[in-house]
Write a structure and sequence with these properties.
Chain B is an all-alpha fold. Chain B is built from 3 helices and no strands. Chain B is about 80% helix and about 0% strand. Among the domains of chain C are: about 250 residues, no CATH class; about 80 residues, no CATH class. The chains are: A mainly alpha, B mainly alpha, C mainly alpha.
């Protein structure tokens, strides 16, 4: 996985750090200047999106590999550098981030009323961290971005959230931190392992470590894999590490939920594909049946629990657990179909669930209630909203022709065809998620939208009115993407094909025992566990 | 010339008196004076060694210590006065907000 | 080939209509324009399909099949051989073009009918949007050249069904019915999906062409073929409302009547039959599954017919009749009489669409009354509707020379004579035929004859407008002559439909090594028996509902228990609710969510936090807050360190 040296411009760094320009401007403003603050925030994120389009059109899918690579020495004594670059997977997720951030800001234009400037700053900082995570090619840099993402998110939940916001923020913070600290240990251990290789030195450069990790003794690989995997699995979240998610989602303000579901969860699955699998392929193969089992449990469990929720946001949150289970299953099917499906499913989930949270936020702004039983017959008073909601729901339950189907189909097919999984039961059980998703989404839709309207005409004590142009505009933008991916997914899948191919190639080599290995354990990191 | 051990014994004695004063006395002013005593015992040691070894470093250090002590005295007394204004006492047993 | 290359237009016209009406209709609510555009695009599709048909007919038999690829759709795009690569492409052969003609032809008539039926509804534009979308999806289902695109159409028609059943969303039960339809269909789709995966695993392809050609060289009766065929059939039972997934169709009658005619009678529900026919080469490799198909079909045919005997909602009767007729089609598939099944799809589309539209005209004329106990004597108020309705009823009852006779009889004959068939299947089928003749006559009599049981002060029955009656007349004509395309071979005339479809099903029948049975005597005998049976069914209805109107009540009283079971549809809904729905819900709520999630997992998480908090509470007592005590500890520490340095 050598970087192609063709693209040397600094467009990627611009994409990462451009939102900071907005932050600088905002720092000079006051919270009271609500309107101009919002305009600056949106402008910054829209310009970032525009810049990221250069990445989209500049990425040479045929060449594959890491492109737009930049490397600047940072802590030279430890071989730590500012090293960024993107492949197909990062490209998709960076675009997802830069698309969702402005949409989240515009979609929740009037939702936040206190400390608007601070809020906008937090969102922009969050965007920097998110894009950085996807672009980093140095584990230390990655870790910095990974942790940096935590800070604005905790504030967004803790300061602008709902009733139990502090509980949710702390829970989110601690959950994530537990995992990431173990990951830090593993990163250091991996760097140290590199230094123990013949002629090696301490490094956190991912591309160098790709040559180190797979050669470690299997027991050590397994421990490191687990350390990384725990951190990522919490983020995904995989059952049974998911309980922070419903709380965080319910309490977070709308834009927070959108970015949390849309982008942050993908950091976990992204981590599996970028770090866990290529760094520790042998351990990944050993862990495969267990992770796949957890993924299948997540799919079914998330769907069943979503079905009985009384709070719309919680329902969507649990549906995320189910959808991300598909992504995990795809990754750990170790097939091209599964990997490709997983990657496109990440984008799909970002769009559909992001849109669902936006929609819930829109109606919450009007009614101030999230309880399903407080609704009914909304389709009559908010017809455009109801149509948009149905459309996004259909995308979420994987109706062919819309985006969700492409991912689910590829993932399930991959899992079904997977020779490494040894059983079609994974796919068969996971496919029940297709039924269950229809059950919980349509049931919720029926209870909220259909049937007779409330006799009082009020919802949550408020009269409601249909969504306006700004909101429609945001939803139309997402809808266009939803249809586009559903009808012509090739435009995305060709970009990510290289990533899938590389991973599969690597796993194949591993399984056939062609991976060059050092004769015996090169290091004794954990005394007594090395072979 | 007085031999070094004499200075050291005196200095150690002053230091212990100061330390015991810091640990046992309850009046903030006296504790404060005990701290000064400890500082000066160190100064004495520094000067003594400076003379004995014929180098100037120790004496330079003493000037630093005295400067710091002066600053500390100013700040410390200010804190004590602020505390007294707030709590109407300089009894250290009653000043126990440094917990939990 | 000028027509064939333009053939994708068949699919694109309805899409254009959908987009046009969907994007502009809400703003310009001109009923006339919307109606004309909505119906017009379907007519254009129909006309194109006719063009394609003629061109196809002009070609030699083996050159009639062609495919048109549009653009790549779902795949891995990694360039590895054997990985998935599905494109949007359409296949035109004898079977798909016939189905296309049925869909667009009957679809067009129903569109025209809807112009009148939906007049004045504020969701008028929405209705036509959905209808056009439906035709678009249905054509994708029919014309797809691979399983995935077929699945797109499959789910797409399911969505339209959902939207149209729930069209009047302000009523509570429409939402329930719509949701039920979608979810039950999804259960079937689950089977379809797994079937597709298994096909991909076995054949490394999902395109019909390559799967079917690989299948032709595979051995018969392998387990994997059994599962493929069975899983696909599960999908078919969902879409075509067969046992055990039929429960959604009767509820689906909550939608507007044209929808019931188009989706839940003529086209969508036959998709399962079409799929089995399309996959005939696969089913030929799994004779066991064919037997299951035949049994399920026959069982459904009788089962639904018995329920139809006692229903009082005009549309419910027709709904159960549809389920029953679909059972016949599956019976045909099960005995490998594929062309007979498709022939019945066609005739059924004619007469069932006619019956539903007729019932719509009745409901329209009766101010939304659907209970036949509150009708009667409508003959003189709705003469056109009555005449056409009777044609439809005779056709479905199987009286020659009406359409239903030919197709149903061919199925029954095959059920009896095919090597896969048996006299038992024939008997069951014939029993269904009696019941059909009976309940259809009962429906006609109770609706149109006898005393006028409606309230004259509030209800003033009137004939429907021209836009509604013209389609009725056309369909009545088709129900009359439509069967002549498939006159039994024993009558010495050509069976046009069978000859046309033969090349498509030949490989499958060849694989099953089915010989043509030419026993005219037996065929005539059975034919006569079934006609007599149908006639006796009609006679019984006439006797009980016209002459001795007290008989039905007496029977109902005598067999009260049976009657109640039938009236309540064998309590299937209630059983599903008690066995599947409610336990799942309770388990998810009480056990998974409030148990596993809240108590166990969150309990562990919050418990950890609590343990740490308690430990900290205890330890924090050490902090007295008095600086001197801290200093004391420091000194003690220093002393200890010095002591350690000195003495150890």
């Amino acid at each position: 996985m050598e970087p192609t040296a063709s693209m040397t411009s600094s467009i990627l760094s611009w994409t990462i750090f451009l939102p900071l320009a907005g932050v600088v401007v905002l720092a000079a403003m006051k919270n009271a200047q609500v309107r101009s603050v919002k305009i600056v925030g949106c402008t910054a994120s829209v310009v970032t999106f525009a810049v990221s389009l250069f990445l989209w059109f500049g990425y040479d899918a045929a060449a594959g590999g890491f492109q737009f690579v930049e490397r600047v020495a940072w802590i030279s004594s430890l071989n730590i550098s500012y090293h960024v670059g993107i492949d197909g997977l990062s490209l998709l997720l960076i675009l997802l981030t830069t698309v969702l951030t402005p949409l989240a800001l515009i979609g929740t234009w009037n939702s936040i009323t206190n400390r608007v400037r601070d809020y906008t700053i937090m969102i922009l900082v969050l965007e920097v961290a998110m894009v950085g995570v996807f672009a980093a090619l140095d584990l230390f840099l990655f870790y910095v971005f990974w942790e940096a993402m935590l800070i604005p998110m905790v504030f967004i939940i803790g300061m602008w959230g709902g009733q139990d916001r502090v509980y949710a923020a702390v829970k989110f913070f601690l959950y994530t931190l537990v995992g990431s600290l173990l990951m830090l240990v593993a990163i250091l251990a991996l760097g140290y392992a590199a230094s123990q290789m013949p002629g090696g030195q301490f490094t956190t450069n991912l591309l160098d470590l790709y040559a180190v990790g797979p050669r470690l003794a299997s027991s050590i690989q397994l421990w490191m894999f687990l350390a990384f995997a725990l951190s990522f699995a919490i983020k995904v979240p995989v059952f049974p590490l998911h309980t922070w998610l419903p709380d965080a989602h319910v309490q977070a303000p709308t834009a927070g939920s959108v970015l949390l579901a849309g982008v942050l969860l993908k950091m976990g699955t992204f981590g599996f594909m970028r770090y866990c699998l290529p760094l520790f392929p042998e351990a990944a193969l050993r862990a495969m049946p267990y992770v796949a089992t957890l993924a299948v449990i997540s799919i079914v469990y998330g769907a069943l629990v979503a079905m009985v929720q009384t709070d719309i946001k919680k329902l969507v949150a649990y549906s995320s657990v189910s959808h991300l289970g598909f992504v995990m299953l795809g990754i750990f099917s170790m097939t091209e179909e599964g990997m490709q499906g997983a990657m496109i499913q990440m984008v799909n989930h970002g769009l559909s669930t992001g849109a669902l949270f936006l929609l819930v936020g829109m109606v919450y702004d009007r009614t101030h209630t999230r309880t399903i039983d407080d609704y009914g017959g909304l389709a009559k008073v908010m017809p455009v909203f109801a149509a948009a909601f149905l459309f996004i729901s259909l995308s979420s339950i994987g109706l062919p022709g819309l985006n969700g189907f492409v991912g689910e189909f590829l993932v399930l097919l991959g899992a079904f065809r997977s020779t490494a999984l040894h059983s079609t039961a994974y796919a068969a059980i996971a496919a029940t998620g297709v039924i269950l998703s229809a059950v919980y989404m349509l049931w919720m839709y029926q209870r909220v939208m259909l049937g007779p309207t409330r006799e009082s005409g009020k919802y949550g004590g408020n009269y409601v009115f249909d969504i306006g142009r700004r909101e429609i505009g945001v939803l139309v933008a997402i809808a266009v993407l939803v249809v586009w991916i559903g009808v012509y997914p090739a435009s995305l899948l060709t970009k990510s094909a290289g990533t899938a191919r590389n991973l599969i190639h690597m796993m194949d080599q591993m399984q056939r025992g062609q991976m060059p290995r050092y004769a015996e354990s090169p290091i004794e990191l954990l005394p007594g566990t090395a072979r | 010339m007085v031999p070094i051990p004499y200075y050291l014994v005196l200095s150690a004695a002053m230091f212990m008196i100061g330390a015991v004063g810091v640990l046992t006395r309850r009046n903030a002013i006296i504790v404060f004076m005990s701290i000064e005593l400890m500082l000066n015992s160190v100064n004495l040691t520094l000067v003594a060694f400076s003379v004995a070894t014929g180098t100037i470093t120790g004496q330079v250090l003493v000037f630093f210590v005295m400067t710091v002590a002066a600053a500390e005295a100013a700040v410390g007394l200010a804190i004590i006065i602020a505390l007294y204004r707030r709590k109407q006492t300089v009894n250290l047993d009653e000043i126990n907000i440094l917990k939990w | 080939m000028p027509m064939i290359s333009n053939a994708p237009l068949i699919v694109l016209f309805p899409l254009a209509g959908f987009l046009l009406i969907g994007l502009l209709g809400w703003k310009y609510r001109n009923e006339l324009v919307i109606g004309i555009v909505g119906s017009g695009v379907i007519f254009l599709s129909f006309a194109t399909a006719v063009g394609v048909l003629f061109e196809m007919a002009s070609l030699p038999e083996e050159a009639r099949r062609s495919t048109v690829q549009l653009f790549p759709w779902i795949g891995t795009f990694t360039g590895t051989s054997g990985s998935l690569g599905v494109s949007v492409g359409y296949q035109f052969d004898q079977l798909s073009i016939l189905m296309t003609l049925i869909v667009t032809g009957v679809g067009f008539l129903i569109h025209v009918y809807s112009i009148g039926y939906m007049h004045g509804d504020k969701g008028y534009w929405r209705f036509f949007t959905y209808l056009n979308l439906f035709i678009f999806a249905m054509l994708n289902l029919v014309l797809a050249d691979n399983f995935v695109l077929m699945f797109f159409g499959w789910e797409g028609v399911g969505l339209c069904s959902y939207l149209l059943i729930g069209f009047w969303y302000e009523k509570t039960f429409t939402g329930d019915a719509a949701k039920k339809a979608f979810i039950v269909n999804r259960i079937g789709d689950f089977g379809f999906l797994l079937g597709m995966f298994l096909i991909m695993r076995t054949f490394d392809s999902l395109s019909f062409t390559s799967v079917m050609s690989s299948a032709s060289v595979m051995p018969t009766g392998t387990p994997v073929m059994f599962w493929i065929a069975l899983l696909l059939f599960v999908g078919a039972t969902g879409k075509s409302a067969q046992i055990p997934l039929f429960v959604w169709l009767p509820d689906a009658m909550a939608g507007p009547t044209p929808v019931s005619a188009l989706i839940h009678a003529a086209t969508m529900v036959t998709a399962g039959v079409y799929m089995v026919a399309r996959c005939a080469p696969l089913y030929a490799l799994a004779p066991d599954v064919l037997m299951i198909v035949a049994i399920v079909g026959a069982a459904t045919a009788v089962f639904a017919a018995t329920i139809g005997l006692v229903q009082n909602d005009i549309k419910k009767v027709l709904a159960y009749s549809t389920i029953s007729q679909l059972g016949y089609m599956f019976l045909a598939m099960g005995v490998a009489a594929f062309s007979a099944g498709i022939f019945h799809v066609m005739t059924h589309a004619f007469f069932k669409a006619l019956l539903f539209l007729g019932s719509g005209a009745v409901i329209h004329g009766m101010h939304d009354e659907q209970d036949i106990q509150k009708m009667g004597g409508l003959k003189k108020y709705l003469p056109v509707t009555y005449a056409t309705f009777v044609v439809g009823a005779i056709a479905i009852a199987g009286i020659p020379p009406f359409a239903g006779f030919f197709s149903k009889d061919e199925i029954l004959w095959n059920a009896f004579s095919s090597e896969l068939g048996s006299p038992v299947l024939w008997t069951v089928g014939a029993l269904g035929a009696v019941l059909t003749a009976f309940y259809m006559s009962r429906l006609v009599i109770l609706t149109f004859h006898g005393k006028e049981r409606f309230d004259h002060h509030h209800v003033h029955p009137h004939e429907a407008p021209k836009t509604m009656t013209v389609p009725l007349v056309v369909l009545a004509g088709l129900s009359f002559v439509g069967g002549w395309l498939g006159v039994p071979a024993s009558w010495g005339l050509g069976n046009v439909v069978e000859d046309w479809l033969n090349p498509v099903f030949e490989p499958a029948r060849h694989k099953l090594m089915l010989a043509e049975h030419e026993s005219h005597a037996a065929e005539f005998t059975l034919m006569t028996i079934s006609v007599v049976l149908a006639a006796s069914g009609i006679y019984a209805a006439w006797r009980w509902y016209v002459q001795h109107t007290d008989v039905p009540d007496r029977i109902a009283g005598k067999f009260a228990r049976t009657y109640r079971i039938l009236l309540n549809k064998y309590y299937v809904d209630e059983a599903y609710d008690a066995v599947v729905v409610r336990p799942t819900q309770t388990a998810s709520d009480k056990f998974l969510w409030k148990g596993v999630d809240v108590i166990i997992i969150d309990g562990a998480v919050n418990g950890t936090a609590k343990v740490i908090a308690i430990a900290a509470q205890t330890v924090r007592r050490v902090q007295t807050g008095v600086a001197q005590s801290y200093a004391m500890v420091i000194v003690a520490g220093i002393v200890a360190v010095i002591a350690a340095l000195l003495f150890i």
